[in-house]
Design brief:
Length: 187
Amino acid sequence: MKHMLFVLLAPLAVLLALPACKKDDTDPNGLPPATQEGKNTAGFLLNGQPWLPKGSVLGSNPSGVNATWNPTSFRPNLTFGFGRYNDGDITDFGFRLPGLHSPGTVMLNQPVSLLLGNKNPAHGLYVIHRPSPDRYFLTGPSARGQVIITRFDTVARVVSGTFEAKVKEDGGPDSLTITQGRFDLKF
């Protein structure tokens, strides 16, 4: 009788346990999940290779991510970026999104000049600091990109979304491809 009861109840136990299995959120490339909670995470594929921020242990930004929003300027301005600061790789990648008021898609396809600084339109900028001299890669008409803001919460101070871009070296022939980008930041 005990054997018969086990045979009948075992399949039921398996069926009841199935909903308890957790979905695996691990990205095969090691990128963080695309969350919207202000976790201060970011990452992307740079020419197909995973790129994750890594802050400096001695620096003021150990996570390697930052975001600021200035609502009082002439045009509200959101800037955010990610850095890698370790022995062999000192690089930064960031965005400037002037005029942002709500979630949506921001196209990165306008001409950008390093000389104009904060007067530039929305753009992405990737900088290689080592080896010297610095090399700057920008979005623009011939190197387009987009940022999709999925959460822009000025009360909770959270900005989240995804991005992709092609960036071209300023004054040089090289370009880089950035895909599967995601960020979830507090500002």
